[in-house]
Amino acid sequence: MRLPLALAPLLLLCTAAASADYGSHPKAATLLERLRQEHGFSAAELDSVRAALSEAQRLPQLVEMEQKAPERTETWTRYSSRIDQSRIDGGVAVLRDQQPFLDRAEEEFGVPPAVIAAILGIETRYGRITGNIRVLDALATQGFEHPTRSAFFASELEHFFVFCRDFRRDPAAIKGSYAGAMGAAQFMPSNYRRLSLDYDGENGRDLWTLPDAVGSIGHYFMRYRPSQAWRRGEPLIIPARLLAPLPAGTEVNGKATAYNAGALLRAGWLAADVDLPPDTPVGIIQLPLDDGSQEYWLALHNFYTVMTYNPRTFYAMAVAQLAQRIQQRLAAEAR
């Protein structure tokens, strides 16, 4: 019997999983001591953590999945296929179904409803696909074994156990992404603890529900990194055209604005399709296409705010363009 392609990665994970007994791993002692000292875990709670670590499954394929994420390996032509009709339709539906919560989030945090919807659409298709990998396995494998990012994942594993204690969740029962992100909003455990909100007043902070995910995304964009907080009313991207080859050393696809619009446009390298105040901070976005050409945009402050959610240019561009398409669809239907 031939398996559907969508099931193949899950079968690979299931067949390759093996008990690792991370409870006896040398790094486990450091984790347990931090849980005791920094978070006040009792002896009984630490025993529960040891038991969970001992039962965690080793999934080394997750390291390869993280290192070969689509944002790292695809062209923009391929990656942008995520901005498909079903995501546009789903975004319009979410804007209607969750309107009271989206309107409240915009009022409180300034983040437009279409942008919050686009995050949900790119992350989990509006809460329909939140991940089928045990978060315990994902974070333990990468926290103890990732060759370059073990410190990050070990920290998230620590926060995961605190989350499970404080939210009264079974560590072995929670499923999420290969990186350990959870819920419709795909928050890592540290951000779940710090930035999630109970937006509907029901059952605490539950990011598997869309109202709580909506409010938490808006809250994230305002509070995650204050210096990069969302700026109300400002766009994310402006279309641009290349007029002359960019000089060697020109920063493209960076993590923050690197130029001001006036100086950049006076240099004659790019032309923007929208007039910007000369002192507007911007970055240059260069998107590789399948035919070998490049697509150019100017990115503004809020584009880089989206990159705090996922620090990949393609991801932020997909969110920005999906939000535009959702908004365009709403405007067309209102005519």
TrEMBL record:
InterPro entries: Lysozyme-like_dom_sf, MltB-like, SLT_2. CDD domains: Slt35-like. Residues 29-324 form the Transglycosylase SLT domain. Residues 1-20 form the signal peptide. One of its GO terms (biological process) is peptidoglycan catabolic process. GO terms for molecular function: peptidoglycan lytic transglycosylase activity. Keywords: Signal. This is Lytic murein transglycosylase B.
